[in-house]
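Section 3.1: Structural characterization of target chains.
Under the original work plan, the team committed to producing a structural model for every single-chain target entering the pipeline before any wet-lab resources were allocated. The record below documents one such target. The sequence was received from the expression subgroup and is listed exactly as submitted; it comprises 81 residues.
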Amino acid sequence: MPKRILQGVVVSDKNDKTVVVRVERRFAHPLLQKTVRRSKKYKAHDAENQYKTGDTVFIEECAPVSKDKRWKVVSTVSADA
């Protein structure tokens, strides 16, 4: 089964080797058909502490690293994309 890859924004880098990434999803409301935005925060492994607050990154699911961390940061979104 392929690993999921999500795109989000780093909202916290205060922990050592960990960043908190907010991932936003959009969907149409079932009844009203209005676009609704929902977000969720994921803790992701950042071994070199290279990602800072405000960076847009891709995270990939992985084996558990700690109690809360099930994701790792793959890369940052390029500026030309």
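The chain has a mean pLDDT of 94.
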